[in-house]
Amino acid sequence: MNARYGWVLPLIQLWHMGWADLERILSTHWGRTNSNAETGDMSSYYFINTILKRKIKDVKRPNYYPTQNIVFDTLRAKVIDCWKVMLGTEDLEVYFKTNPIPIEDIFELGTVE
């Protein structure tokens, strides 16, 4: 039986590209590790990692999934914050229950002119 595994190499390359990209994002936005997490830069991944008690240890060779999770979780939180500011509310769930908006209108609100 002659098995061909040529399809594996592109998948491995994509995974390593993603890992390298996560390392780039993390090292760019990690911040200073010698600052106090309570008073440090709240926008840095070091601060977020400390406050959320995540397990990202080595910024130069981070674990793939914990790094991916902190990047995605931070993105979701920042998008939610943007919606709160745009809609002038502190609680999006209450806002949408009292002000039902069609999805098309929500997408229109999200466009930047």
Automatic annotation (TrEMBL):
Name the UniProt record assigns to this protein: DUF6589 domain-containing protein
Residues in the signal sequence: 1-20
Organism: Favolaschia claudopus
Keywords from the UniProt entry: Signal
InterPro entries: DUF6589
Keyword Signal: yes
Every DUF6589 domain range: 4-108
Entry-linked Pfam families: DUF6589
High-level lineage: Eukaryota, Fungi, Dikarya, Basidiomycota, Agaricomycotina
